[in-house]
Automatic annotation (TrEMBL):
GO terms for biological process: DNA-templated transcription. Belongs to the eukaryotic RPB8 RNA polymerase subunit family. It comes from the Eukaryota. It comes from Corethron hystrix. InterPro entries: NA-bd_OB-fold, RPABC3. This is DNA-directed RNA polymerases I, II, and III subunit RPABC3. GO terms for cellular component: RNA polymerase I complex; RNA polymerase II, core complex; RNA polymerase III complex. DNA-dependent RNA polymerase catalyzes the transcription of DNA into RNA using the four ribonucleoside triphosphates as substrates. Common component of RNA polymerases I, II and III which synthesize ribosomal RNA precursors, mRNA precursors and many functional non-coding RNAs, and small RNAs, such as 5S rRNA and tRNAs, respectively. Keywords: Nucleus.
Length: 144
């Protein structure tokens, strides 16, 4: 079976910060829409480490590994100093897909927890079909 590295990629426009009000002092929940696949994104980020503003464009990549050659992660932090996908991004988190809900009409919602910071990515299942339930993945973010 071939290794799937990039599971999803799109540029998102941040529409709103904290749509349900600010709950935690160092966390922002961003609400954004993808420019290519029109997916809806809700994502919690650490606003002290990586501030994001409304109307900013950000590239989001979901990946099964950070290895440039597609080698699967072995579950341990790589301290080798070798280049990784993370080198090309500004903010990276590791998490697990904990739920995929089928909304009907070919639309699914993928739910991921990054150590308690949550993401919900909703869109056409054709664009999200590479993401699997209970899969460990990385989210890589950079501003455009």
């Amino acid at each position: 079976m071939a290794t799937r590295v990039t599971l999803f990629e799109d540029i998102f426009v941040v529409k709103q910060l904290n749509p349900d009000g600010k709950k935690f002092s160092r966390i922002n929940r961003i609400q954004a829409t993808g420019t290519t696949f029109q997916c809806d994104l809700l994502l919690d980020t650490n606003s002290e480490i990586y501030p994001i503003a409304e109307e900013e464009k950000i590239t989001i990549v979901l990946s099964s590994t950070l290895s440039l050659d597609g080698r699967p992660d072995d579950g341990e932090y790589d301290q080798s100093g070798e280049p990784t996908m993370a080198d090309n991004y500004e903010y990276v988190m590791h998490g697990r897909v904990f739920d995929i809900k089928y909304k009907g009409d070919g639309v699914i919602a993928v739910h991921v927890s990054f150590g308690g910071l949550l993401m919900r990515l909703t869109g056409d299942q054709r664009h999200l079909e590479n993401v699997r339930a209970d899969e460990r993945l990385y989210i890589l973010i950079k501003k455009d």
